[in-house]
Amino acid sequence: MSQRIGVVRFPGTNCEFDTIDAIRALDGEAEVxxxxxxxxxxxxxxxxxxxxxxxxxxxxxxxxxxxxVMDSITSFAEDGGPVLGICNGFQVLTEVGLLPxxxxxxxxMKFLCSMQQIEFASTSNVLGxxxxxxxxxxxxxxxxxxxxxxxxxxxxxxxxxxRIVFRYTDNPNGSxxxxxxxxxxxxxxxxxxxxxxxxxxxxxxxxxxxxxxxxLLAA
Length: 219
Description:
Layout: E1 4-9, H1 16-25, E2 29-34, E3 45-48, H2 68-78, E4 83-86, H3 88-96, E5 102-104, E6 112-120, E7 136-143, E8 147-149, H4 152-160, E9 164-168, E10 179-183, E11 189-192, H5 209-218
Parallel strand pairs: 1-2, 1-3, 3-4, 4-11
Antiparallel strand pairs: 5-8, 6-7, 6-9, 9-10, 10-11
């Protein structure tokens, strides 16, 4: 039986179709979840994709966190449901408090769109089931506010608990400790700035996103 993945759509989301196509290519089922509704439609996992939720007014994800769907996703995550936030989705997860820290403007104040190498720092999460620590992946980034920051004590805690999922090998945006992705304590909620749904075909420049999405489907 195929796993059903809910893909959240806010006004301004623009990566939902890429995500849906990638999930379906891996024999998963994809269900769009409109931000204004609280029904998660009995999905097995959730992806909050990239884009510009509510135009990124105030700051990225600051309005999206008040959407009815986020209350349901918070309960889903607290019950152990797998949740992946990609780029703008990562920003939303920090705003709603499912992940610590924040994403601020890139070092150099430039929008970045490029292929980047990231390295697994921990596999104790829903994206690491088919990986080993040290594995390197080529995954594209596409963001202006991807510079991850958090308090020193939060960084110390995350490192001690193996909650840093990915690090950039050549930090493009100034993120603290080269962080490209993190998870919650249980490992069922992951946020990452790179776009695995855009690394599923050689025509796109990389297939390294396939293993990450397969792990989410298996979770």
